[in-house]
Amino acid sequence: MAAETRTAGAADVLRADGLAKRYGDRDAVADLTLAVGTGRAFGLLGPNGAGKTTSVRLLTGLLPASAGRVELFGETLGPGNASRLRARVGVQTDTELYATLSARENLRIWGDLFDVDRRRLPGRIDEVLEMLGLASRADSLVGEFSKGMRQKLAVARAVLHEPELLFLDEPTADLDPEAAADLVDYLRSLIRAGGTTVVLCTHQLHGLEALCDDLGILVDGRLVATGPVDDLLAARWPTPGFRLEVGGDPAAAARTIAAAGGAPVLESDGALTVALPTEDRVPALVAALVAAGVPVHAVVPLRPTITDYYFATVDDAAARREEARA
Ligand SMILES: Nc1ncnc2c1ncn2[C@@H]1O[C@H](COP(=O)(O)OP(=O)(O)OP(=O)(O)O)[C@@H](O)[C@H]1O
């Protein structure tokens, strides 16, 4: 049975149940079952070809599923309600932008399509262009835009009608570091202050902790891990780890730590890492090292990140695949 993300205390804005897409004899997505609560940010991660884009297209009803069901805002998505439900959703990758029109004109068309109040639309367009850092290029033709500017405009277009649920596919891929940080800040404000629910596909793992509440990791079309970020990290690394930077012979320091009941790992840079049942054990360990004449230069808590979790999970999946082949 597929794992399921549960976000306690929040109504589910999006649910998928056994969602699948087959192309010939290949499963692009298989048995996708998840739930995303109101105001949560769900990071959908996975290697190239894992099925992220296909999943987003299935979840937004842009692609017919081979099997399974999608629920948006508590209603099963179907031909009878798709356009009404999709009006409450923003999708960054919905369609191409019009290259022969300006940024402002592109947004005006989109605003009309999504029934943004005509009187409010000009002000709202200025607002989103400002928020996405495009105000000074509002009247430039999109065909003259750089890749990063087009990407910002696609996000501006997706948020224009103030959707309750926002799907983003690699929104920072073509942005410079400063623009990427600004976009993450903006998304965070939408989620934290505006209560928007976000589903984000990305390969940019660094700093995702600042944005994502929940994760799903897709490998070969299957969700191999899903849940709240904190729970996933705590389940995989239940004991706190520490990095000890010591002087003298690290092997001698390792023996002292082992004698004190720890299980040190000697890193290639000469530092030692050790997992301890609780932080309370650190002072006794340092005291044992000092008593043995080992100078302790630093004790740094190791906090596993989403990047660590991603690589560990993808490696596990690869190992399972190898085992199954053997
Ligand atoms: N129209 C299609 N016809 C046949 N196969 C397809 C089609 N679209 C996607 N696929 C296959 O489905 C799988 C998942 O593709 P998808 O684009 O969803 O992956 P992804 O995780 O978004 O990849 P990336 O990170 O590279 O963008 C791939 O094996 C891909 O070749």
Automatic annotation (TrEMBL):
<dbReference type="InterPro" id="IPR027417">
    <property type="entry name" value="P-loop_NTPase"/>
</dbReference>
<dbReference type="InterPro" id="IPR003593">
    <property type="entry name" value="AAA+_ATPase"/>
</dbReference>
<dbReference type="InterPro" id="IPR017871">
    <property type="entry name" value="ABC_transporter-like_CS"/>
</dbReference>
<comment type="similarity">
    <text>Belongs to the ABC transporter superfamily.</text>
</comment>
<dbReference type="GO" id="GO:0016887">
    <property type="term" value="F:ATP hydrolysis activity"/>
</dbReference>
<dbReference type="InterPro" id="IPR003439">
    <property type="entry name" value="ABC_transporter-like_ATP-bd"/>
</dbReference>
<dbReference type="GO" id="GO:0005524">
    <property type="term" value="F:ATP binding"/>
</dbReference>
<protein>
    <submittedName>
        <fullName>ATP-binding cassette domain-containing protein</fullName>
    </submittedName>
</protein>
<keyword id="KW-0813">Transport</keyword>
<keyword id="KW-0547">Nucleotide-binding</keyword>
<keyword id="KW-0067">ATP-binding</keyword>
<feature type="domain" description="ABC transporter">
    <location>
        <begin position="14"/>
        <end position="245"/>
    </location>
</feature>
<dbReference type="Pfam" id="PF00005">
    <property type="entry name" value="ABC_tran"/>
</dbReference>
